[in-house]
Amino acid sequence: MATIVGIVFPIFALIGLGYLGRRLGLLSGDAAAALSGYVYYFSLPALLYVKVAEVPVAEFFSGNLIFAYSGGILTASLLIWAVGRLRRMDRRTIGMFILNATFGNVGYMGVPFNTVAFGERGIPIVALTIVLTLTITTLLSVTLGLAVIEGGGSNVNGWRGLMTSLFPRRFLSNPVLLSIAIGVLASLLTIRLPEPVQRFLGLLADTAGPVALFAIGTFLHATPVLKGLREVTVLAGVKLVALPLLTIAWFYWLPVERVPFAIAVLQSAMPVAATNFVFAQQFGVAVEVTAAGIVVSTVLSLLTLSILLLLLL
After folding, report:
1. Reduced to 3 states, what is the DSSP secondary structure of residue 310?
2. Number of helical (H) and strand (E) elements in the chain, helices listed first
3. Which H or E run contains 206?
4. Per-position b or e across 71-102, b if 16+ CB within 10 A of its CB
5. Which domain holds residue 188?
6. In 3-state terms, what secondary structure has residue 117?
7. pTM: predicted TM-score of the whole model, two decimal places
8. Quick one: average pLDDT of 110-134?
9. Where residue 67 sits, what CATH number does that domain have?
10. Number of domains in the chain
């Protein structure tokens, strides 16, 4: 139990510190945005590149892991869609619920959490789950966007505007995905950067975890929690409990080694990603429920991730 506390406490203490900094007025909204931008564009890409590049691709590229992790997300999506249609929910609401329930905070929270739990050896596995999560949820975002456009409620100008706003932004210009792709290429070609550059990237990488967690706390303070308690409770239950259980079920049929298995399950159990709030606003769907879901699932993940760690370690 002391081991679990040793892993979980510093993670959530940093999140709480970020929240407290905003709460006490020590940080402005602009400062919080700058921290988030620093992590997204600089430190997190540096960390992922360095750790992916130094490990042979064969050591972390696992077919079973890819299919099992993706299978959990897709199974959850299909089940949510089926239940939503049975309850006669409109497609826009179902689509946003699917996105919230499957797109977790695998970057800002998943990277530092798994690094603390398993050391830097697990970062390439984390990088693989990030690629899978972003790829699948981008396709889900397109599906949601098309449903919204057909319903006439989108803030995006038609399906061409949807493709333009989603795909280039999330793939071609996504610094996290680009850093992973370049890291894989460097690993395959055994490229070694000059020592001064390596040290520079190492310094950037060392700041990724703490600053990312602190930035999450600043975001939580600025996120409104207004209404939709029932929907938010269901969302948190699906994201934090049901999705990890489905992922475990897939790994029962497609087994992998203990550490990759544990990382994949923990990544599936990460709370709702803050990015989803942007999508909810862009598509004009479930904005308040999404905002509340981010806050509630992040707070509850203190308990659920602790339990999972206890079972997986």
Report:
1. helix
2. 15, 0
3. helix 195-222
4. bbbbbbbeebbeebeeeeeebbbbbbbbbbbb
5. 2-312
6. helix
7. 0.81
8. 84
9. 1.20.1530
10. 1
